[in-house]
Amino acid sequence: MRLRNVSLLIALLMGLPCARATNIPRADKIVIVKSTRTMTLLSGDTILKTYKVALGTVPAGPKRTEGDHRTPEGSYTIDAKNPQSQFHLSLHISYPSAADRQRAASLGARPGGAIMIHGLAKPFAYLGPLHRQTDWTDGCIAVTNAEIEEIWKLVPVGTRVEIRP
Description:
The chain is α+β, with helices and mostly antiparallel strands. It contains three helices and eight strands, in the order H-E-E-E-E-E-H-E-E-H-E.
């Protein structure tokens, strides 16, 4: 009888970390403000975390066409996660929207794609937060590798993304 109680106690204790892991807050919205180079993760009205970011090399204005090196502006969602990203980890943003495609078509161009929130490629990971000294992406939102690991855990596929000027 005593051994059974010990076994039950061990089983319960081993289950506690799993129970706590399910209580990790999840973001339901990401707000990126290009002018302040910030990205905020929200759960309802609660701010989970704010990060400093690097943007596309032409940060002012919305993305218009493929190759313009601008970060888009508008409402999107996280529609995929890539654990094999060349930029450590990445979260794909649902750009282009129908309006983005229409704008590019009116200019006789393609809207582009592959806009992501990502970390740093292996050769540049050592830079850490120094990567934010300049906007260097092709239109993506870049954070450090430690930050994208944290973001990866907090942001599920389907999370809304609002990118503001």
